[in-house]
Specification:
This protein is mainly alpha-helical. It contains 13 helices and 6 strands. It is 67% helix and 9% strand.
């Protein structure tokens, strides 16, 4: 069963949309981080889990962020609460499908990453500049800022698009987005996860900026896509080179026009400079026999021909 699930995930990740890949990454990180929590609990060191998790979280402590630069990216894929990831992934799927259908799947990654970074700026502004709430340091994790960017982007793109809500019926997108943003404002006023809700609003603001600038001809997703495309090509070429180095280079035959054999034709030599298949080497030797005779073969060529005849 595990093998079947793994194969399904690989297939969906390889051939699925950007939206599908983002959901798979978030779900995979969620499983991994909770497995770590389970193993630490069994090992009697669960108290250390909080420090392990902080290793991937953004913090109001700038020194932590500067010495752990990966947190600017990793925090937006990190969840350890079931309801936290469930609602984020549902919102990402529902509203991401609308954005993808209207402006293309390639825009999703840019909105997600840049929206998450905008959420970081809002979080740092609230906790460091405004010093709200007091105390700290505070740590933030989750895709909420990135998801809110996609939510507001969908509402900015098509405010009159209708979504059917359970027990309510069809509701226009602009009202859904307005309510979600308003709930974040209420949470800030009630001092509930204040830094996190500032991050939500930062992502939401970027979602509006992204679509506004896109309509003016400025696509902020292009540099993000280019960066990940180059990174993907780099690692693909790197692994391809390592794989090719492990393969043994075969001995091959090439034509040398500078060597004559009694004027009867062109001679041949063995070299390691070119790669030919077994069949191509055999054809070259047979061609040499046809032109210059069997006796013109070197001992290595005769041995190769003998071995090839045994395989047949």
């Amino acid at each position: 069963m595990v093998t079947s699930i793994w194969e399904d995930l690989k297939r969906e990740f390889s051939h699925g949309s950007i939206l599908t890949r983002l959901i798979i990454i978030n779900a995979s990180v969620f499983v991994i981080i909770n497995l770590v929590k389970i193993f630490m609990s069994i090992g009697g060191i669960r108290d250390n889990y909080i420090y392990f998790r902080r290793f991937f979280c953004i913090s109001s402590d700038l020194w932590h962020d500067l010495t752990h630069p990966w947190v600017f990216l990793t925090h937006m894929f990190l969840h350890d609460g079931f309801w936290h990831i469930l609602w984020n992934m549902l919102f990402l799927y529902w509203f991401g499908r609308i954005v993808s259908d209207l402006i293309g799947d390639r825009k999703i990654l840019g909105i997600y990453i840049l929206g998450g970074l905008a959420g970081v700026l809002a979080f740092l502004f609230a906790t460091i500049v405004l010093q709200y709430p007091s105390g700290g340091p505070f740590y933030a994790l989750g895709a909420s800022g990135a998801v809110m960017a996609i939510v507001v982007a969908s509402g900015t793109l098509s405010p009159d698009y209708s979504m059917r809500l359970l027990f309510i019926g069809d509701v226009k997108l602009k009202y859904i987005v307005m309510v979600l943003v308003f709930l974040d404002l209420i949470a800030i006023a009630d001092d509930v996860n204040t830094g996190g809700h500032f991050a939500h609003l930062g992502g939401a603001f970027f979602g509006w900026i992204f679509i506004t600038r896109l309509r003016q001809g400025h696509d902020y997703s292009t540099p993000v896509n280019n960066f990940f495309d180059r990174a993907n090509d780099f690692f693909r070429n790197l692994f391809a080179k390592k794989s090719s180095k492990k393969r043994r280079r075969p001995r091959v035959v090439y034509r040398n026009t500078k060597i004559k054999n009694g004027g009867k034709g062109q001679a041949y030599a063995v070299s390691d400079e070119e790669d030919l298949s077994h069949q191509e080497q055999l054809d070259a030797i047979l061609d040499k026999i046809k032109k210059t005779g069997y006796d013109s073969l070197s001992s290595e060529e005769k041995e190769f021909l003998f071995n090839a005849s045994k395989k047949k």
